[in-house]
Specification:
Blueprint (H helix, E strand, L loop, with lengths): L13 H18 L20 H6 L12 H4 L9 E8 L4 H11 L4 H14 L10 E4 L4 H7 L3 H13 L8 E3 L11 H8 L3 E3 L9 E9 L3 H12 L4 E10 L1
Parallel strand pairs: 1-6, 2-5, 5-6
Antiparallel strand pairs: 3-4
Helix pairs in contact: 5-7
InterPro entries: ComF/GntX_DNA_util-trans, PRTase-like, PRTase_dom
Organism: Parapedobacter composti
Protein name: ComF family protein
């Protein structure tokens, strides 16, 4: 007779393997505890990626409650969007900057999914965000995608999708040329940099639908404007947009 936790072929069953894996994970965490992406302090039991203190002190915009919020006003007179909102304010040398730096550049895309789960809980109760049909992340050019290994906006979209119960169309938009980094460009330079950069993948069936366009950080709005313009020209009925953060 085999001991509990083993199959008849002598191999550990799934439960036993899970217990063993948890044991080793706990042992590793004891000597190398995971740290918070916002403050770099060790996470305590039950915390994941971001500690409770940082969640409490993050600068939330609450822009989803105000149709005239700062993110939305950025696009007035530029492109017709149904609604725009950002989850957090972005400032230099802040918790948000450290979180997004780990998210984008230190191989931790799970932060985007977590942010999507959190923000989705707010958006699902807020019109017109709760009236969307599909979620489309801002795409990366294939060269940058190969270099980074993942599209950070797609992971944010994944978290939103899980809560809002709307499908993600990863390739609804394609980036047909590699634009230079936007980080140190002026508003005009950012606008010029993304002209004719994006194209709509018409085989994805987005025409006539309300699309939620998602990106990580909203600065001048040039990227969102370029993507939304392409979607609307391609027959999309409405475009709303959300980002994890907005620069101050």
């Amino acid at each position: 007779m085999w001991a509990i936790g083993h199959q008849g072929n002598g191999k550990p069953c799934c439960l036993t393997r899970m217990i063993i894996r948890q044991y080793f994970d706990d042992l590793i965490s004891l000597f190398f505890p995971p740290t918070c992406a916002g403050c770099d302090m060790p996470l305590t039991y039950g915390e994941h990626l971001i500690c409770t203190v940082c969640w409490f002190h993050l600068p939330y915009t609450n822009g989803h409650r105000d149709s005239c919020n700062g993110s939305a006003r950025l696009f007035w007179g530029r492109v017709q969007l149904a609604a725009v909102a950002s989850y957090l304010y972005f400032m230099d040398d802040s918790r948000v900057q450290r979180i997004l730096h780990r998210y984008k550049y230190r191989g931790c895309p799970e932060i985007g999914t977590l942010m999507g789960l959190r923000y989705g809980e707010l958006l699902i109760a807020t019109p017109p965000f709760n009236q969307i049909d599909v979620i489309v992340p801002v795409p990366l050019h294939r060269a940058k995608l190969r270099k980074r290994g993942y599209n950070q906006s797609a992971f944010f979209a994944r978290g939103l999708s899980q809560v809002m119960q709307k499908p993600v169309v990863i390739d609804g938009l394609v980036r047909n040329r590699a634009a230079d980094t936007q980080t140190r460009k002026t508003r005009y330079e950012r606008h010029e940099n993304v002209l004719n950069t994006f194209a709509m993948n018409n085989s994805r069936g987005l025409a006539g639908r309300h699309v939620l366009l998602v990106d990580d950080v909203l600065t001048t709005g040039a990227t969102i404007e370029a993507c939304a313009s392409v979607l609307l020209a391609g027959g999309v009925a409405d475009v709303s947009a959300v980002t994890i953060a907005k620069t101050v």
